[in-house]
Amino acid sequence: MKNKKLVLAARPNPAISTEIFRLEEKQLSSLSDGQLLIKNHYLSVDPAMRGWVTDMPNYIPPVEIGTVMRSFAVGEVVESKHSDYAVGDFVYGLFGWQEFAVSDGFDVERKVNPDDGPLSINLHVLGMTGATAWFGLTEIGDPKHGETVVVSTAAGAVGSMVGQIAKARGCRTVGITGSDEKAVRCLNEFGYDAVLNYKTATDLAGDLTKACPDGVDVYFDNVSGPITDAVMNQFNIGARMTVCGVIGISPEHVNGPRVSRTMLVKRAKMQGFLIFDHMHRLSEAVAGLLPLYKAGKLSFSEEIFEGLSSAPRGLESLLAGTNQGKVIVKL
Amino acid sequence: MKNKKLVLAARPNPAISTEIFRLEEKQLSSLSDGQLLIKNHYLSVDPAMRGWVTDMPNYIPPVEIGTVMRSFAVGEVVESKHSDYAVGDFVYGLFGWQEFAVSDGFDVERKVNPDDGPLSINLHVLGMTGATAWFGLTEIGDPKHGETVVVSTAAGAVGSMVGQIAKARGCRTVGITGSDEKAVRCLNEFGYDAVLNYKTATDLAGDLTKACPDGVDVYFDNVSGPITDAVMNQFNIGARMTVCGVIGISPEHVNGPRVSRTMLVKRAKMQGFLIFDHMHRLSEAVAGLLPLYKAGKLSFSEEIFEGLSSAPRGLESLLAGTNQGKVIVKL
């Protein structure tokens, strides 16, 4: 049986383009004891790939030139010499941009139940995106019923999940986003109680005060920078803040108000968060997210690219920001 | 029976001087049911008093003009119509700068065992200072055996306690202080493994790297500002930081590097800390501190002023920084 795969052909120079990947076709060798063969159904396309294809040290080693592109995927076990996996099992893990993956089980994050919903949701709602929102909000932010939760990049993949989980927990949810179109989605689709467009706001601090009449208890931050300064000024005593992204810190703008005094006066907590630290607990996140999904409380968007060879275009679209929702490749 | 007390006669204008207090003598009225009469033995003099005597809103209301100056004290119950307290009990609480205090029990923080050591230690090692160090370090910093704990204002009342508690827990302790004299005390008296004088350091970052060969796991911060920036650059993944004071943020220097990226990359935690939130759990701190004190593992200094009328001079000395250790008034 033959396997088609996308290998990393070159490092970005400087930008990522479809040219840095190469399609290869190779004969699959037969399985050894302890291995399983996975037929991928859906491949994931993620912003983190920007880091994986460079040779800069990261929380995870770079993808080597000439090897299959690293990616999360959902697949079906089609052959097994591994006692934990049977033919017909569905699995989620780092199976790469390829049609088939030979695995020893270590790269399987969890078994997937196909009755939970479309297989593709295991790449976002019940995958990395969902788990990031789930653990970052529930373990660090720990929102209580009636508290106010503010989310930056409120319409994004992670932010929109955070807003919906917080809403389902009975919180007042306030989103911060960068376009009127996204603001409308925040209100109508993701159920935020209030939304601010930071790009058109002339008085962000004043708008935040109005949107958060009881102050801010939890802040799920994907941006840092001046938006975060404004939110921190509205903190209640004992506020909690999840630092999930820092895209608002541009090289020209690395300085800003010191936060220590706010942290002290408000006895607030701040904690950096990386989902890879929590992947071994993915099933806990799924156990929390699945009831919300089944109850129709988790809205999301997918943009599906068809066929293995479309994956690099999917990544290009994601990095250019022209995608509509979670980018997925269907095989 | 007559009671002598120091009342607040005026607000600071602008500095605190001995003139803002006035000594008064008044007849004590007899106790009502539910009250107890406390004879103060030792009065506390604390930096927090700077805030209490102004009329600016704080975490605690200002001391009213004409009323007794608020202060922690250790005293003896000399008369009681309160079922929880008997004559001869020793108590710690907010009894004020006066010889006798009439209490309804609400201002008693805890009963004191005179066999634990000199009564005065209940004003610092087993009082607010100790509890600040204890909860701030153990609950927020949560240091594990073998970890590296960095303390700013390492020779100060709180900092020196933090260093010693961390040392007793088997940590490598690194102190940052502002004079060679204090640096010597840090090493010889408070048992720090390494100490840095930030005022004479020409390369604080380099010195920190040498002093913390395994990075920084816990940072107990009493200063904020550039010192804190340098320490944060040495954070290990999962570092914890207690924000206990921000004296390093001067009005001319409110800007500094944004901390969010450090917090994210290191998945570090930062939390503001105010001891008044934890006063109802003071006995827990004492339970932790007492064995250390009895084992001779808690070094401290006291500067005793004799007589009630010396309290304002004690405060002046403390605010001028000419004191040697914890300032206490002995009655």
UniProtKB/TrEMBL annotation, chains A, B:
GO terms for molecular function: oxidoreductase activity, acting on the CH-CH group of donors, NAD or NADP as acceptor. InterPro entries: ADH-like_C (IPR013149), ADH_N_2 (IPR041694), ER (IPR020843), GroES-like_sf (IPR011032), MDR_fam (IPR045010), NAD(P)-bd_dom_sf (IPR036291). Residues 17-329 form the Enoyl reductase (ER) domain. Keywords: Oxidoreductase. Pfam families: ADH_N_2, ADH_zinc_N. The keyword Oxidoreductase applies. This is Alcohol dehydrogenase. It comes from Kiloniella spongiae. The lineage of its organism: Bacteria, Pseudomonadati, Pseudomonadota, Alphaproteobacteria, Rhodospirillales.
